[in-house]
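Fold Annotation — chain and its backbone
Encoding — discrete vocabulary of local shapes
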Amino acid sequence: MTAQQEQLIRKTYAAFNARDIDAALTVMHPDVEWPKAFEGGYVQGRQAIRDYWTRQWTEINPEVQPLKITGRPDETLEVTVQQKVKGLDGSVLSDGIVKHVYTLQEGLLRKMNIEI
């Protein structure tokens, strides 16, 4: 894993937690595939992620903090995260450790998978 890749990952989480969709989308490939964590399946493309996150944030309040970033032999990046999801009333719906695995293409995030 390079310093540039680590910076890319940290920028993504910081933007997501700040609800700065525009900043998050700048690090994503135009054909990015993103999991719909609480619904199942994937969305594809930057606009689909914008729509998904915008809708998601009207229903829940997730915060995801990267704890460890590791390069895998297959050239993907594994990010161990602390994921806390709250309801809009502040109640904790889930709080735990999750692994996010990223495929990069052309220096951008191309696909994210979730491993529990």
User: Anything to note?
Assistant: The chain has three helices and six strands. The mean pLDDT is 96. The domain at 3-115 is CATH 3.10.450.50 (Nuclear Transport Factor 2; Chain: A,). Residues 6 and 69 are 7 Å apart (CA to CA).
